[in-house]
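Worked example 2:
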Amino acid sequence: MPNMTLQKTPAREQEPNIRNKNFKEVSQGYDEELALNEASRCLNCKNMPCVSGCPVNVRIPEFIAKIAAHDYEGAYAIIKTTNSLPAICGRVCPQENQCEGKCVRGVKGEPVAIGRVERGVLKQNQEIAVCNYHDPDAPAKKAKAVSMYEFQGLGKQPITEATAGNIIAMSGIGDITIGDTICAPECVEPLPFVKISAPTMEMTFSVNDSPYAGREGKFVTSRQLRDRLFRETLKDVSLRVTEIDGATDAFNVAGRGEMSLSILIETMRREGYEFQVSPPRVLYRTIDGKKCEPIERLVADVPSESVGAVIEKLGSRKGDLIEMTPVGSRMKLEFLIPARGLFGYRNEFLTDTRGEGIMASVFDSYAPYKGDLSRRNTGSLVSFETGESVSYGLFNAQERGALFIGPGVKVYEGMIVGVSPKQEDITVNVCKKKQMTNMRAAGSDEALRLVPPRKLSLEQCLEFLADDELLEVTPKSLRMRKRQLDHSARMRALMKSRQ
C-alpha cells in the first residue's frame, strides 16, 4: 500500500552556521530510513509520466522499487543503463521541471523527491586543493581562487561566487593542467578522467642559424621560442617539451604523431616565429627488457589496380597486412606498420595510386623493434653557393633531378633546391650565369625552357627530410637545408664515415 502522505520527506541539510565554513554538499540526502519512507510514496504509475520528463529516460519507478526492496546496487544499475554519468542525477538536473514536474503526486501535494541536491559553492579567495585522478599518491596542491569569471556570449564577466553547473574561468593556480580536479581542502575527491596517451614522436626545434636568419620572422630568439613552446603545453596535454643538456637554443618537442607537430609548426609560423626543425623521430620504449617501437594501424582505400604497388611498398617498410576487403572497384587495406615506416611514404602512396588513394593511421600499440629501415631512396640537389637563382643555372641543374625553386629565388650554400633520383646528394650551382662573349653562333641564344618546379607543403617538407637535413621555417618561406652548410666539411665527414 503506497504511503499517501502529501508532503515530501524532508532531506537532511547542513546548518547555515556550519555550511558557510566548508565546501561540502548543502544537502546531505536521505539516510536509509528516510529513503525507504520517501520511496513508499511512489504510486508506480502504469504510463510512468516521470520517465517522459527525464532527459535520459531513466526508469524511475523501477529505480524507486529497488530502493523500497533494499536493493541499492540494483537501483544504481537501473540508472547506469540509460545514463553514463549516474552521479549527476539529482545533483545538477533541474528535476523540479523535469521528472518531479511530471509526477502524478504533484497534482495534489508535493511530488516524490527524486533528486534535490546541489553540490558545492566556490567563492572568490577561497582556499582550494588541486589533485589528479591518475596520480592518487601525490599530495593535493594547495591554492586560492584569486579571481573568477563567468562566460557571457564571447566575453567574460567577473563573479564572486559560482555554483554547480556553472562554467567558469579561474586564476590563482600556477601549474594546473587539463584533467586536474579542484576540491575543498577538507574533502579531496579527484574526478575520473581519461588518461592521455604518451607521445610517440619527437622533433628538435632550434633557433634559425642559416645565412638568411632574422630577415622574415618577428620572434627569432631562443627565449621567445622557449616561452612559446612551453605555453603550448598548457593547452595541448599530449605535448612534451624538454630542454637539451648543453644546448640553450634547441628543445625536444614530443607529440602524438607527425600531424600534431606539423599543426604546431604551422601555427607558430603564422604567429611570426622563425626557427628550424629536425626530421621527426620515434620514441622507443624498453618493455620486459626488449626494445619496442610504436606501431600504427594504417587503413588505405586504393583502386584495385594499385593494390600490388601499395602492398609492396608497405611490405618493404615492415608493414604487415592484416585485412583486405573489396569495396566495389576499390580495395580497403589494413596494415600494422612501425610509425617510422610511414615517414615520407605519403608522396609515394599518391604516386602509386595516381592521386586516387586515401590513407589514415592511428596509434595501435608498442611492439618489439622490427629492424633497420631505410628512410629515403632518393638524394638531394644542394646549392653550391649563396646568391640568386637564374634560368641558366637552373636549366643545367634540372638535368640532375626535379627542382623545388624557380628563377629569382635567393639561395645559400647548403640549401636543398631539388631532389635527385640517385641515392646520393649532388651539388649544383643554380646561381651560375651565362658568360658574356663577343662571339655569336646559330642557336646559342635560344630561349631556355625550364620545367615548372615542385612546390612542397609543410607536411611534404617534413616527409622529405633526411637525417642530416633541417627545415627552416619562417612566416614567408619554407627552406630545406643541410645541417652542415659548407660543402668541403660535408665531404670530409662523408669520407670519414666510409672509412
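Residues 112-118 have pLDDT under 50 and may be disordered. Residues 149 and 488 are 61 Å apart (CA to CA).
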